[in-house]
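queue> pop job 88
queue> type: inverse folding (structure -> sequence)
queue> payload:
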């Protein structure tokens, strides 16, 4: 009996265990089923999206940069043209054939294998992410590679627009050029949206307004496997790129061309600006360069050749070179004499041809001397003895330096171009700090006639003349007039005139200086050269000695029309021809042609003919 009960109890216990086990297994399956239901049905789309994102790789679609126009907004100075870039997928490049493949590519592209290797970041050497090897390639080059694609595993290409600079010559220093971003630049600009393969402005307007011009790159999304290899899954998604904005310059193409031709193949620069607004109408620097050569398949060789050129064609001499201002500085000294009343404008200084201070003898440019001169006569004849006497004995270096700084010398003008330099306004403290030697009387003599340690840029001299025209107000020089929408052409932003500097002098002082500058043209050193009848010009010549070999800079700084108060009519022109050229006193000749062209609305050839200067160009 007890045995039967024990057996019955064992059977029930076994059944209970079985039921419990079945229930447990069923419960687990039910939980998994519910969980899978939520994963696949309820939250399926969410997880699918996340999985897709993990499997997606993005490829950049370069945005087209905005176009650049002159002030007339008719024909662009800069556009974009289709071009190709060559890519490599490093992981698909057979290690055993790496040298052979890259060596052959280097020959085709006109570069070196090491240069191609340097384009591949070390962290991507074994990855499936495409890396750009070269850009600016022609269709013919890509077709040549495509026909032999079996010889180049891992090599692909994509469309990448490049800049087309339609206006050659001196405008290159204004517009600048673009290039691929470097690793050093990426470290600085990564947080501003730049990435490897981006195109970046390297100089000029292209650099200064890169964020305006560059637009926003698009994205092409590709599905890849766990190793990063592309998987074909049908149509690709993309975010289209956004065009960069267009820029309208203050430059007048006609005036720029005239100024360029008037300067000719002479190392130097020309600045033409509206003093009442700061708008730059022309900015010329010679020698210049062809920016289009940087986008050819021999771009590296072109860039290297220009970089090694001893005439420094990349240098924008209007803002990046400083010189002794020579006699153009006498305009500023005239202002100081009149305002300080340290020496009557009617008082006479007798120029005998020399001025002696200590053991230093200064010679006037007229060896026999000018004889007795007052202030107006001294400026007209550019008499060194007069200004050395007044500057040294009646003004002194502290007053001269103060006026130079009031006129903005010794500091940047703030023009919207990169690389502007400050120049030098010397004084005793500066010399002691720089050369560890005391200031002497001869230093003041040198500064008084625009020589010695004094150094200015052509754009600073243009501002100096503008301040005289504007009765003590200078507007910041600028090269951008408007920013426009690339599709509609509507103005997004207009650049308004900005006061850069003011100086509180008596209005009559400026009027007298302008009168004295007019005397330079009618009765002085520029009388035989400034012959235009299209407008009345007021200005100042300058001849600066360089070294001890009889080399001379040629300056001419002027404005027109003399006597006009209409700011829309006024133009300041500064021409600077370096001593590196054969001496020919070219500054005033070039300015004469430029003023004639501006105010008679003529081309260079028409201006030369109107001024009867054909002989001047035939003999050169």
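queue> result:
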């Amino acid at each position: 009996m007890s045995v039967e009960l024990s057996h019955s109890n064992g059977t029930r216990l076994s059944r209970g265990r079985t039921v419990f086990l079945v229930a447990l297994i069923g419960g687990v399956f039910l939980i998994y089923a519910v969980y899978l239901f939520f994963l696949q049905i309820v939250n399926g789309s969410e997880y699918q999206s996340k999985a897709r994102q993990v499997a997606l790789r993005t490829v950049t679609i370069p945005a087209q940069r905005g176009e650049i126009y002159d002030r007339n907004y008719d024909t662009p100075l800069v556009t974009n043209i289709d071009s190709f870039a060559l890519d490599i997928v490093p992981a698909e490049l057979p290690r055993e054939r790496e040298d052979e493949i890259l060596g052959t590519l280097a020959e085709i592209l006109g570069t070196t294998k090491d240069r191609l290797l340097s384009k591949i970041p070390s962290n991507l050497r074994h990855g499936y992410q495409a890396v750009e090897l070269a850009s600016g390639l022609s269709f013919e080059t890509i077709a040549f590679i495509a026909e032999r694609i079996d010889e180049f595993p891992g090599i692909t290409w994509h469309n990448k627009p490049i800049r087309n600079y339609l206006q050659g010559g001196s405008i290159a220093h204004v517009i600048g050029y673009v290039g691929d971003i470097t690793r050093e630049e990426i470290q600085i600009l990564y947080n501003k949206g730049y990435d490897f393969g981006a195109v970046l402005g390297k100089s000029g307007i292209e650099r200064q307004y890169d964020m305006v011009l560059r637009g926003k790159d698009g994205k092409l999304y590709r599905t890849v496997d766990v190793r990063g290899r592309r998987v074909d899954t049908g149509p690709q998604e993309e975010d289209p790129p956004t065009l960069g904005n267009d820029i309208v310059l203050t430059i007048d193409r006609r005036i720029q061309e005239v100024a360029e031709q008037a300067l000719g193949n002479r190392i130097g620069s020309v600045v033409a600006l509206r003093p009442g607004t700061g708008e730059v109408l022309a900015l010329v620097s010679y020698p210049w360069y062809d920016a289009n050569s940087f986008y050819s398949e021999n771009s590296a060789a072109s860039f290297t050749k220009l970089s090694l050129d001893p005439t420094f064609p990349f240098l924008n001499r209007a803002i990046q070179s400083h010189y002794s201002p020579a006699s153009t500085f006498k305009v500023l000294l005239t202002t100081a004499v009149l305002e300080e009343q340290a020496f009557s404008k009617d008082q006479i200084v007798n120029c005998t041809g020399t001025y002696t201070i200590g053991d230093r003898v200064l010679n006037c440019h007229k060896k026999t001397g000018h004889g007795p001169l007052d202030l107006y006569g001294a400026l007209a004849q550019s008499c060194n003895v007069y200004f050395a006497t007044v500057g040294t004995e009646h003004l002194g270096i502290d007053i001269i330096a103060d006026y130079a700084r009031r006129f903005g010398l010794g500091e940047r003008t703030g023009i919207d171009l990169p690389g502007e330099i400050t120049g030098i306004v010397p004084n005793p403290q500066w010399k002691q700090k720089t050369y560890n030697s005391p200031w002497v009387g001869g230093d003041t003599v040198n500064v008084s006639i625009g020589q010695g340690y004094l150094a200015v840029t052509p754009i600073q001299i243009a501002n100096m003349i503008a301040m005289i025209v504007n009765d003590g107000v200078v507007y910041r020089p600028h090269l951008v007039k408007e920013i426009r929408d690339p599709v509609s052409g509507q103005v997004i932003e207009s650049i308004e005139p900005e006061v850069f500097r003011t100086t509180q002098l008596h209005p009559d002082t400026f009027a007298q200086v302008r009168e004295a500058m007019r005397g330079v043209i009618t009765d002085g050193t520029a009388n035989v050269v400034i012959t235009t009848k299209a407008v009345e010009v007021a200005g100042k010549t300058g001849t600066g000695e360089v070294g001890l070999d009889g080399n001379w800079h040629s300056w001419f700084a002027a404005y027109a029309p003399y006597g006009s108060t209409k700011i829309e009519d006024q133009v300041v022109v500064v021409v600077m021809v370096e001593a590196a050229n054969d001496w020919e006193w070219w500054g005033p000749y070039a300015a004469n042609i430029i003023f004639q062209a501006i105010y008679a609305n003529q081309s260079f050839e028409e201006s030369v003919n109107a001024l009867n200067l054909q002989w001047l160009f035939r003999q050169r």
